[in-house]
Amino acid sequence: MTEQQHPRTGGCPMRPGTDAVPLYGAGFSDDPAKLYREMRARYGTVAPVLLDGDIPGWFVLGYRELHQVTSNPELFARDSRRWHAWEHIPEGWPLMPFVGHQPSVMFAEGAEHRRRAGAISDALTAIDQFELRQICERLADGLIDAFAGSGETDLMVHYAARLPLLVIAELFGFPATEVPELAADIAASLNADDGAIAAHQRVAARMQRLVKARRARPGADVPSRLLGHQAGLADEEVVIDLLVMMAAAQQPTANWIGNTLRLMLTDDRFAVSLSGGRRSVGQALNEVLWHDTPTQNYIGRWAARDTQLGGRRIRTGDLVILGLAAANTDPQVRPDFSEAGADGNQAHMSFSHGEHACPYPAPEIAEVIAKAAVEVLLDRLPDVMLAVPAEDLVWHPSLWMRGLVGLPVEFTPAYTPIPAMGTPGALYG
């Protein structure tokens, strides 16, 4: 064994005499910020870690180091087939959905990635954001109609988790009759059980039918714009990239909404003031991206050649994990880190950075959805409050996503009309 190797990591180089941090098991969801502080104090800006099954990798905690990785796609590449550990990955490995190569924009590199990502950006740029806001408000009102008369609900289950999908389904041009089953299958595909694969296959089949229909009869929707783009995308390319876009929009945006509502319901700075006003919703949304960003960590990048990062020797084919939330709290770039220090500062890494960051204008679209969701809810139910103590709220046990299992609330029941068939209230009531 060499000076910088440890037997638990299969030869992954690290500081001699130390051990890698296991990133699995219990303890991550309650206080991930504490974990990042401990890792930073022990290892610095780049830490040796173990994923499920004791698979080694490098975890990037430093803001500057994360910027370096995401700004150098030739050195820290996206194609997971570069990984030297594939022979050690067991069948059914739980993180396979994150790293298993697919012919999508996610794993494309160089000119091919620019071709695919450029088409996506152009298709999203064509969305009128004023019209998008109207769509969000209408769909949010429909969801609230379904529970406003009851005086109580779970805002994660019945609101935050549903609105992004409804909006994306409309932007994609899905028939309203298909949305309930689409929503159920997307939720099922995210579960770690035997039904997840079948659910994902049903979602893919619906997307294939949608693309085929739009190829025959284009409309004013995202799939039609991709199909008609000068990049000349094949149908199968459009299908898989639409699936990536839907997955990237659904859960992160839902958690952004939920985490913002939690902040506004639990933090005195955002409580109802004596004049009846509330602190800026946009301010709360930005603060969440700094402190409780929905996408905490991301797998990943793979070293294209031997290099140095944060004082570590990175070998060709090593896995590099992007610690987005950890970078946001790096004291080297934010020594005065505090909630108040986030005001107006949008230099966070919550949407990643560089060529493989969330493509423009997807972050702006997500913000329109999230802001409309919060503002419409506060307008409709101005006295909404938590139905349980804040400390009883439960986070999903995930190192990768930061989101609540539930957000139970109470409010004064409000009269609402009976939802018409085809509205969100009727579909999900």
Description:
The N and C termini lie far apart (61 Å). The protein is globular. The strands form 3 sheets. A 6-stranded mixed sheet has the order 1-2-3-9-6-4. Strands 5-11-10 form a 3-stranded antiparallel sheet. Strands 7-8 form a two-stranded antiparallel ribbon. The protein is 43% helix and 9% strand. Helix 7 (163-172) packs antiparallel against helix 11, helix 9 (195-216) packs across helix 11 (235-266) and helix 11 packs across helix 12. The protein is of the alpha+beta class. It contains 15 helices and 11 strands.
Number of helices: 15
Describe the global form: globular
DSSP strand count: 11
Order of helices and strands: EHEEHEHHHEHHHHHHHEEEEHHEEH
Rounded to the nearest angstrom, the radius of gyration is 22 Å
Largest sheet data: 6 strands, mixed
Tell me roughly what share of residues is in helical segments. Answer: 40-55%
> In whole angstroms, how far apart are the ends?
61 Å
| Uncertain ranges | 1-17, 273-277, 420-429
| Fraction of residues in β-strands | 5-15%
Determine the mean pLDDT.
Answer: 87
Look at the helices and sheets and give the structural class.
alpha+beta
